[in-house]
Prior knowledge:
The structure is a single chain. The protein has one domain (28-58, 68-188). The chain is built from 9 helices and no strands. The protein starts with a helix and ends with a helix. The protein has helices at residues 5-14, 29-44, 46-59, 71-79, 83-94, 100-139, 145-165, 170-176, 180-188. The longest helix has 40 residues, at 100-139. Helix 4 packs across helix 6 and helix 6 packs across helix 8. The protein is mainly alpha-helical.
Amino acid sequence: MSRLHPVLLTIVCLFALSPLGAHAETLTDQTVRAFISSLEELQTMEDEFSELTEDLSDEEDTAEMPDMSRIFSSSIEQMKGHDMYNQLEDVVQQHGFSNAEQWGRTGDRIFHAWSALEMGEQSGQVNQEMAKAMEEIDNNPNMSEAQKKQMREMMGGAMSAYKEAANAPEADKRAVRPHIEALRGATEADE
């Protein structure tokens, strides 16, 4: 099972790639830059947000997988009613967003496009790893048939999510592509 660990990690990441609905607004270079700048500023406030993060963790049902396709907008929804919500909204408005909800929806789109771009570069390798993992599952004498079935279903879901990632709007991917390094830089600090 230790060889399956990277694949299971991939499965979790793939949940972030489920398709988002149609987008009326165009994702522009300026919007992507503003989002990255707001992320960088919010990270300077990480200590202030740590208490909120603990509160939200206590409120969450840890057995339920979060909807990764709405990671930012769902976080905004959870923050409503907490003191830090107003601070977050002030920051995102200073960066040109009308409110925290718009910022969250924009973040969802940016991360969906970014994930699609990253996966596009690694598609051959990921397909090979998933095929190998399916073979390992089928040939694992230490797993019951029920466990194998559950793992196959998870892998099937991951493969479907992976294929759906290609559905990120081309316009969004074009807008995000020049900013991949900046996005990596803005998100590495909290890993």
